[in-house]
Amino acid sequence: MRIEVLFPEYCSxxxxxFNVKYLQDCLPEAERIDVSLRDEPELKGEGLVYLGPMSExxxxxVIKKLMPYRDRIRxxxxxxxxxxxxxxxxxxxGSYIQCxxxxxxxxxxxxxxxxxxKMMRRHNSVFLGDWNGGEVTGxxxxxxxAWPMEGAKGLFTxxxxxxxxxxxxxxxxxxxxLFATYLQGPILPLNPCFAKSLLEAMGAPGVKLxxxxxxVEAYRARTADFHAKVR
Length: 231
Prior knowledge:
Layout: E1 2-6, H1 17-26, E2 31-35, E3 48-51, H2 56-66, H3 70-79, E4 82-86, H4 89-93, E5 96-98, E6 104-106, E7 113-117, E8 123-131, E9 134-142, E10 144-148, E11 154-160, E12 170-175, E13 178-181, H5 187-190, H6 192-201, H7 212-229
Parallel strand pairs: 1-2, 1-3, 3-4, 4-13, 5-7
Antiparallel strand pairs: 5-6, 7-10, 8-9, 8-11, 11-12, 12-13
């Protein structure tokens, strides 16, 4: 089992690497491979490929870095390799990012979504959604909203909060075993139901979560609080 973490020195703005640390606690035998932006990704397709949130300037560098690997990434997605993209990482694999001056930053074109960026309007919110018979909570802080394109499949159904955009009924995208969400921070230890689904996609079904009892207790308290306080 391998966990390949792309560009962790730049792509972990909100402590998202704790998602990887939690997976390592759940799978102590897993090999973690950190790929620097100066190095070449391995993309062997075993276990998980992870990319976290980054600055807007870094987005352009990451797109340029990954563009030569576009066909390989497409092959891995099509074959069912697990991917987790958090924060604005999904935009890297999307169609394009439209800037305020009307210019476009072309993405890898692997996900049916495009984004509109407004650097003077940061969106901050909390989120509550449905996932696979359970619920997911999380936090969003972003300069973009995204619009799904033909064939897009949402990840979480919105119960409270904002989806890909303010009118979209779902948050995030799913393609096979690729999970992409604007939610950021340590979403896996906060959402044990989603963490178990990701582990199953990685080829580790039935694995007991690290600190599972404590995680579930905290999750129940948090979802109850979100139901009471989030509009």
